[in-house]
Amino acid sequence: MINHCLCYFLNMSIRKIAGHDLAPGRIIKDHIHVDGTEIHVPHVIISGAADGPVLLVTAGIHNAEYVGIQAAIELSSEIDPEYLAGTLIIVPLANTSGFENRTMSMVYEDGKNLNRVFPGDENGTASDRLAHLIFNTFIRHADAFIDLHSGDGYEELFPYVYFLGDTACEEKSAAMASCVNTEFVVRSRCRTGGAYNMASVNGIPSVLIERGQLSQYPREEIDADKADVINIMKYLGMLKGVHTAYTKTPLFERELFSPATGCWYPEYHAGDTFFSGELLGTIRDYFGNTIHEIKAEETGIIIHQCASLNILKNGPMISYGVF
């Protein structure tokens, strides 16, 4: 039975998604074309035998973040509609053109970061049009939303989960976040650009799960992503069973961007703690001369950082959490 407090999620009026008529027990696997581009978005729609909420799971908004992509691909073939209450929509690879051209998470056609342009613009560039389609075709029809991410090809990362604060759906989003098996949670304040951010701003309870790093996709991390999605589905009443709520340490996120282009030598790894005043890393020129020393202004823990030798001016350097 679906808990009465989750009645908010029920949306019985939805009978068509992405042009497909929904029917109990039906599984749809298809692509939808982004107008004005050559981009097609793969999607899977699984309609359960019983009524329930509409859950959207996306992966590959950053196309080099492979753990979530593979987890979504596997889930799309493993969820049996006979045991499902509601509708599960899976977009296993949102940025197909970036994936097929190995752009390291940018949209190939215009070089934009897809997760900075939501809710998009149907008259904009390829990224804007893609975001507009995903938002209006899938996100707006969801009663809850899970976005799967990882560390990029140059980023190491310690697993954690985001939800957006100060929204009408914050309580539900926080409850979904508690179902994710990570040690840390970030209550985000960013209300622009991101898929899950804009979903929450529009009243759709959402979380972003960060797991995996350096464009690798080890089996244990894929399975952990899948287990988190299943656990959230139990919380939503879409699958039978009692969900697990994991105790978490809340973090306030701080982001540091590189002051220069050069060679990067970090002192710590993702998951390491540090104290205020300690050296976090050094940027050197191509002769080995120090350009910048990056020192901590606060005590915290590194949640993800650039792990490649090259670092770009104004590019991501270190994101850390403050307890």
Can you describe this structure in just a few lines?
The protein has 323 residues and is an alpha+beta fold.
Structure description:
- This protein is an alpha+beta fold and 323 residues long.
- It has two domains: 4-247, Aminopeptidase; 251-322, OB fold (Dihydrolipoamide Acetyltransferase, E2P).
- The chain is 20% helix and 32% strand.
- The protein is built from six helices and 19 strands.
- It has helices spanning 66-78, 96-101, 126-138, 170-178, 195-201, 219-235, and strands at 16-17, 20-21, 27-33, 40-47, 50-59, 85-91, 144-149, 155-157, 160-164, 184-188, 206-210, 249-257, 262-266, 273-274, 279-284, 290-295, 300-306, 310-311, 316-322.
- The strands form three sheets. Strands 3, 4, 5, 6, 7, 8, 9, 10, 11, 12, 14, 17 and 19 form a 13-stranded mixed β-sheet that branches.
- Strand 15 and strand 16 form a beta hairpin.
- Helix 1 (66-78) packs across helix 6 (219-235).
- It starts with 15 loop residues before the first strand and ends with a strand.
- Residues 1-13 have low confidence and may be disordered.
